[in-house]
Specification:
alpha/beta; Rossmann fold; 12 helices
């Protein structure tokens, strides 16, 4: 024991000094940048924001965040009754003008209608929030009809690309923003979400490429939320994985994180690489403990997959390719 104390007394002081000299200044710098980026937050008062999938979940709560700041809202979803409730709540929170446009984002004519009615009513469009999506909790080989998977891709991927196509001319005029709600499953494999993950990964690659094509006129932010507790996802996740599996983030907290990521215009350390190569916004990871951010850097180990998905993935490997 005396030997151990001697060794520790010999090693700890220089190690501590080295840590303070090498890492503490960097830590202070990152904290300073984190504080500075909040100094310039986009003023969205009076700006026109179109949100798809606004009847519930992330879309609903992102609408509330915009409403609190006085933005004007065009709310899109299939459920008219729910849209009316969200619209009224948004007015009470501070939005001066809210319209609802019921429809289906997987229908290209509806997507054109969403933009046309927004422009007809407000005269412009500043932000497009591509949020509409549906989950999947079915093992791929258990699809009764494989063509049933088409609807997931139609809504999650094509629904965002259709409406973006019609929105771009108006967003160019306003120097606006496109926000894409993808998912952490775009980069982390999840059992029983093969088609869903593919649809979300397609969103990331499409909008990363589009960002290059339309920069600097239009900025694009891609959000990668983790497991968000909503009326739509929570029952399915519990049935498929069990309540112990869910690492859930509250939907309101996730919406706040996304809204901050949209509005912050100061330098974000996470987006330095993107800025250097001509991009404008970094991904926003909304998981409360940055779980997926860490895993993306460390790769996904077979041990992690064995713990997380014991029924199907325990005997499979993942090499990060």
């Amino acid at each position: 024991m005396d030997m151990l104390h001697t060794i520790l007394n010999f090693l700890l002081p220089p190690l501590t000094i080295s840590f303070l000299v090498l890492f503490y200044p960097f830590y202070l710098f990152t904290k300073l940048m984190s504080c500075l980026k909040h100094l310039h937050f986009e003023n969205v008062t009076g700006k026109v924001v179109l949100i798809t999938g606004a009847s519930s979940g992330i879309g609903e709560h992102v609408a509330y965040e915009y409403a609190k700041k006085g933005a004007k809202l065009a709310l899109v979803a299939r459920r008219k009754d729910r849209l009316e409730i969200v619209a009224e709540t948004s007015r009470q929170l501070g939005s001066g003008d809210v319209i609802i446009i019921p429809g289906d984002v997987s229908n290209v004519e509806d997507c054109k209608k969403f933009i046309d009615e927004t422009i007809h009513h407000f005269g412009k469009l500043d932000h497009l929030i591509n949020n509409a999506g549906v989950p999947q909790t079915v093992i791929f080989e258990d699809f009764t009809q494989i063509q049933d998977a088409n609807s997931i891709m139609d809504i999650n991927f094509w629904g965002s690309t259709y409406i973006t196509y019609f929105a771009i001319p108006h967003l160019r005029k306003s120097k606006g923003k496109i926000v894409v709600i993808s998912s952490a499953t775009a980069i982390i494999p999840l059992q029983a979400a093969s088609v869903y993950s593919a649809s979300k990964a397609a969103l990331v690659k499409f909008f990363e490429t589009l960002r290059v094509e339309i920069s600097p006129d239009i900025k694009i932010t891609i959000a990668l939320p983790g497991f968000i507790s909503t009326d739509m996802t929570t029952p399915q996740f519990k049935e498929m994985y069990g309540s112990d599996f869910i690492l859930s983030e509250s939907v309101s907290r996730c919406a706040k994180a996304i809204f901050r990521g949209i509005g912050e215009e100061f330098l974000d350390l996470r987006s330095v690489r993107a800025i250097v190569v001509g991009f404008d916004s970094s991904k926003v990871l909304c998981d409360r403990n940055s779980l997926f951010s860490v895993l993306r850097k460390l790769w996904v180990s077979p041990l992690f997959l064995q713990i997380l998905f014991p029924t199907k993935v325990a005997n499979e490997s993942y090499d990060g390719g």
